[in-house]
Amino acid sequence: MLSVTDEALSSKETKRLGDADFTYGEVGATQSETLPGNYDHLRRVRILGTGADRFEQAVRILMSWDMHRIAGIRVRTSSKHAVPGAVAVLLLGRGSLSLEGTSACRVRHG
């Protein structure tokens, strides 16, 4: 298992990102069975293993932003867990080669 540490967002960054308008109009639409049009929707199913322990491990990885970190993406977060209202900035690369900006995200619902 990959060992990771959190990079916290400042309270100023957290407020700025939390107050920002969403960049799309269909906010909350993923709670519906029918996804909004005009987007390319991607669904993938993968077997991660079996049993309750494997399921709990997958939940921890997904809900702690580690899914991104394992993929090599640095994550700066307002919360250690992906909970409603949490914001994160996803960074590719290292140091001055990091790409940041449109990579911010906000958890809308759980």
Task: Please describe what this structure looks like.
The chain is an alpha+beta fold and 110 residues long. The protein has one domain (1-19, 49-110). 24% of the residues lie in helices and 13% in strands. It is built from three helices and four strands; from the N terminus they run βαααβββ. A four-stranded mixed β-sheet has the order 1-2-3-4, covered by helices on one side. The radius of gyration is 15 Å and the shape is globular. The mean pLDDT is 83.
Summarize the structure in short:
With 110 residues, this protein is α+β, with helices and mostly antiparallel strands. Helix content is 24%, strand content 13%.
Strand content: 5-15%
Which class best fits the helix and strand makeup?
Answer: alpha+beta
Compute the gyration radius: what is it?
A: 15 Å
Give the helices and strands as they follow along the chain: EHHHEEE
Average pLDDT score? 83
Quaternary structure type: single chain
Largest sheet: 4 strands, mixed
| Shape type | globular
Number of helices: 3
Strand order of the largest sheet: 1-2-3-4
Our measurement of the CA-to-CA distance between the termini, rounded to an integer number of angstroms, reads: 25 Å
According to DSSP, the number of beta strands is 4
Total domain units: 1
Could you name the ranges where pLDDT drops below 50 across 5 or more consecutive residues?
A: none
Helical percentage: 10-25%
Pfam families: DUF1990
Organism: Tessaracoccus rhinocerotis
Domain DUF1990: 23-107
Protein name: DUF1990 family protein
